[in-house]
Design brief:
The structure holds two protein chains of two kinds. By secondary structure, chain A is of the alpha/beta class. Chain A has nine helices and 19 strands. In chain A, the strands form two sheets. A ten-stranded mixed beta sheet of chain A has the order 2-1-5-7-9-11-13-15-17-19, covered by helices on one side. In chain A, strands 3-4-6-8-10-12-14-16-18 form a nine-stranded mixed beta sheet. In chain A, helix 2 packs antiparallel against helix 6 and helix 7 packs across helix 8. Chain B is α/β, with parallel strands linked by helices. The two termini of chain B are about 30 Å apart. Classes of the chains: A alpha/beta, B alpha/beta. Bound molecules: adenosine-5'-diphosphate and magnesium ion.
């Protein structure tokens, strides 16, 4: 590249601006062992620069509100009309209030086959030192993910979980907000040893603006279920990254329910490194009004005989915008890959918008990959059929919207959670039907 | 029970008149058949009566037990006792057959001020009715009509009718696509529902169905009107000679 080309000049300007921003930041001192890892993340960030709207990767989502030096205040939104999430589920609760681990509100950490610590106080262990920032760094190619590097550099807290056995009691990370101005940067590490199993639940509003990174390292035959609900706060600005590598025959299922929110970008980058791995990422997002929700997913098949599914459904109303960027990469070695990707939006009026960029990149010759993307309204024939049987219009629409979302909800393995989610979806649809 | 008087209907978006002065009266306890060539407006009549969008009534009336059907929402017509077995039942992915049926049944009962049917009672009832129609448990669990064969869809329509117990049943070519055995099942299902308080309007092309469901009155429809009305023999006449003679005779 010519140093005087417009592109080179733009990159230079971007690096300068990013460096100026970095110079204003002071990374958390704890834990001490993370200091060099944070410095490395800053170096990555300085090199790639903060994202800009003109980047291909941010074409549909303007990152300005994510990169601004400080976020606007956001009302603390209290949910009073629904029971707390996962209320009936026996789980280990870990609470973060305004982005800080809240020991008083959390359960005592205990359990067979599981070690848990909080990032801000975590003692140095080989696994955590090896993992912190490692998958984020790996995810910087083929496209840079500067918001994730910024997170590694600046994360103040998070949970570090190492699982050595089959843990049936879910770990439930609960976010709470009290401060309208708070910003939160959290970084969670999950290390699942061979054959280990864990269910990780996340729910609740994190902060006015938040960045959460999860780095998950699944050894052979490990199983991770990740179920996340993002709260109902309307002014939420959030970016999340799920990075996971899967060993042979490892399985990962991640599902996100997202309602409301001003700007949400959920990225996932998964590597199927060992043969026979299974990775499913799914999401249901519902928005009405000033809502911009972006799911950006990259799944790399690097070994033979792996399966991946991406199932993303959005229900959009009154100018809401939904974005899906999804890619399946099948490397030459990944014969007998089974890859599936579907992204669909149901537009409840003509003012809403769905932008999708599904991609397949395949270098192996014996693979089965399919993808599809649609956007449409409620089917008039379906609606009439239900009404002709006596189902009132609002109820019929509700059934059809839930039907539209069903394929995404099918990705949740625990039945009792599915019903809970359905109730919440129902609630949202009832609140947003007029 | 069902009174249709001088009904004129055109397409909403097009300047196309489909029903052109249709008059028909179906009394409680009776079975009326409508036969007629393709395109004569039989399905349009069934859709307009059940309240589908896309049609505009330009003249005439239709009442059920004296109530103006045409001003009611589709769901209110259903609750009032009107039922249409669709010529082409739609597939609805993601909506379970059972959920759908129970929602429909209880919505109708609620609209009529009747108590809801409990999950347990509903299950018992639907299983018994399904058995009669040889609809297996697996079909009940699947999404509405998804992956059903043509005949299965038609049997599913009759199952819904048996569950909802409507008083005015319109069957739009329920026999098309049915083999002999399925035809028998469907007819038995319909005949089991025949009683003094209920009426049927059976739209069909073929005499065959009318061998099983014996009509009291047969109407011939052409170009958006009833052009001839008679007894069961009229259906036999159509079967033997086609519509040409009748249409010529009435100058339609
Ligand atoms: N929605 C529609 N759009 C266009 N044409 C229609 C529509 N509905 C009915 N028609 C036309 O109206 C006429 C009557 O159709 P239909 O009621 O289906 O007749 P039948 O059921 O007797 O075969 C046909 O010419 C058909 O093409
Ligand atoms: Mg027809």
């Amino acid at each position: 590249m010519n140093a005087h080309s417009p592109r080179a000049q733009r990159l230079a300007a971007r690096r300068a601006a990013t460096q100026a921003r970095i110079d204003t930041l002071s990374p958390p001192a704890a834990p001490a062992w993370a200091a060099p890892l944070r410095a490395a993340a800053f170096a990555r960030l300085a090199d790639m620069g903060l994202p800009e709207k003109r980047d291909e990767y941010w074409r549909y989502t303007d990152p300005a509100r994510l990169t601004a030096a400080s976020p606007p205040e956001a009302d603390v939104f209290r949910v009073t009309d629904e029971p707390a999430m996962y209320e009936g589920v026996d789980r280990l609760k870990l609470v973060f209030t305004d982005g800080v681990f809240d020991a008083d509100a959390s359960d005592p950490v205990a359990g067979e086959g599981i070690e848990i610590s909080r990032l801000a106080e975590a003692a140095e262990t080989p696994w955590s030192r090896d993992l912190y920032g490692a998958l984020e760094a790996r995810a910087q190619a083929p496209v840079p993910r500067p918001m994730a590097a910024l997170n590694t550099a600046m994360a103040t807290d998070g949970v570090l979980i190492r699982v050595t056995g089959v843990v049936s009691r879910p770990v439930s990370v609960i976010y709470r907000r009290t401060d309208p101005a708070a910003e939160a940067t959290l970084h969670h590490l999950l290390r699942l040893e061979e054959g280990a199993e864990l269910t990780l639940l996340e729910n609740g509003p994190v902060a006015a603006r938040s960045s959460i990174v999860i780095e998950a390292d699944l050894a052979d035959r490990a199983v991770l279920h990740h179920i996340r609900t993002m709260g109902r706060d309307h002014q939420r600005i959030a970016v999340t990254h799920l990075f996971a590598r899967l060993g042979a025959d490892a399985r990962l299922k991640s599902f996100t329910l997202s309602m409301n929110g001003a700007l949400v970008r959920n990225e996932a980058m998964l590597w199927l490194d060992g043969k026979g791995g299974v990775a499913h990422v799914a999401g249901a997002a519902l928005g009405d009004g000033a809502f911009h929700h972006d799911d950006t997913v990259f799944i790399a098949h690097r070994a033979p005989g792996c399966e991946s599914r991406q199932v993303f459904k959005k229900v959009l109303r009154t100018n809401a915008i939904g974005v899906f960027q999804g890619k399946i990469l099948v490397e030459r070695a990944a014969q007998l890959t089974d890859g599936y990707q579907i992204s669909q939006s149901l537009l409840l009026d003509e003012r809403s918008q769905f932008l999708a960029k599904p991609e397949l990149e395949i270098y192996a010759d014996d693979v089965k990959c399919s993808h599809g993307s649609t956007s449409g309204e409620i089917d008039a024939d379906h609606l009439f059929y239900l009404r002709a049987r006596g189902v009132p219009e609002d109820e019929a629409k509700l059934l059809l919207v839930l039907a539209f979302l069903a394929e995404a909800l099918d990705e949740i393995e625990r039945g009792e959670l599915v019903e809970d989610m359905q109730q919440r979806l129902r609630g949202w649809l009832e609140r947003h039907s007029h | 029970m069902l009174e249709i008087n001088n009904l004129h209907v055109k397409l909403e978006d097009e300047d196309k008149q489909i029903l052109k002065g249709l008059t028909l009266s179906v009394e409680a306890g009776s079975v009326h058949a409508i036969m007629g060539p393709n395109g004569s407006g039989k399905s349009t009549l069934s859709y307009v009566l059940s309240g589908r969008d896309g049609y505009q009534v330009t003249d005439g009336t239709a009442t059920l037990d004296g109530e103006d059907l045409l001003s009611m929402e589709p769901e209110d017509r259903a609750a009032a006792g009107l039922f249409l077995a669709f010529q082409y039942p739609v597939e609805i992915p993601g909506v379970g057959n059972m959920t759908f049926l129970r929602t429909a049944l209880n919505a109708q009962r609620k609209a009529r001020g009747e108590p809801e049917v409990s999950a347990g009672d509903f299950l018992k009832l639907v299983r018994a009715k399904a058995r009669d129609l040889k609809i297996d448990a697996d079909m009940l669990k699947r999404p509405v009509n998804v992956g059903f064969s043509g005949g299965e869809k038609k049997r599913n329509e009759i199952l819904q009718m048996a569950m909802l117990q409507p008083r005015m049943c319109i069957l739009d070519e329920t026999d098309s696509g049915l083999d002999v055995d399925a035809m028998k099942l469907v007819s038995d299902g319909v005949n089991a529902l025949r009683d003094a308080g209920r009426a049927f309007l059976v739209i069909t092309h073929y005499q065959r169905l009318l061998d099983h469901i014996r009509p009291d009155v047969v109407h011939i429809m052409a170009a958006g009107r009833i052009v001839k009305t008679g007894g069961p023999d009229l259906a036999l006449e159509v079967e033997q000679n086609g519509y040409a003679d009748i249409l010529a005779e009435v100058g339609a």
